Amino acid sequence: MEWLLVAISIVLLLMNVLLMRTVKKQHTDEDSARVHESMAEFVDQLEKENDALYDKLITYIQESESHLTKRIVGLEQNFAPSFKGAETLEEVSLETEKIIQLSRQGFSSKQIAKVLQIDHGKVELVVKLNNKQQVNFKEDEVL
User: Fold this and answer.
1) Is the distance from CB of 99 to CB of 123 less than 8 angstroms?
2) In this structure, how many other beta carbons lie within 10 angstroms of the beta carbon of residue 102?
3) Contact of 122 with 79, CB cutoff 8 Å
4) What are the structural domain ranges in the chain?
5) Helix, strand counts (H, E) of the chain
6) How far apart are the C-alpha atoms of 53 and 80, rounded to whole Å?
7) What is the pLDDT of residues 64-117, one digit of tens each?
8) CATH topology of domain 88-143
9) Strand locations in 9-87 (E)
10) Is 126 exposed, middle or buried (0-12, 13-18, 19+ CB in 10 A)?
């Protein structure tokens, strides 16, 4: 009889262990399903935020380009009259040559503008364009 009670206790113990493993496995499966579900929600949320930020970036870039384009047009309109005010194209060319010559001699843009009685911005523009043209010419020679 004692053996029978020991055998029944062992069988009940084994059944209890199996039941606990089954319950634990179900909880693990449910937990992993919840984790996968929450990860999917998190990824969806990140994608939505990413799309919103991308749209904001595109809008910012377009606004910046528009602003810069307007500014360039305004600057072109401001500087256009100074060249149109010259009587002939030869006069503008002569003025440009004087600016370049004085720049090569080491005079600053402010000094050139003062000597030739020209707008400082115009002198800066001519000097910078000339320097850029020289750099491009040297690069072409190297190629």
Assistant:
1) yes
2) 19
3) yes
4) 49-85, 88-143
5) 4, 0
6) 40
7) 999 999 988 888 777 765 544 444 556 678 888 889 999 999 999 999 999 899
8) Arc Repressor Mutant, subunit A (1.10.10)
9) none
10) buried
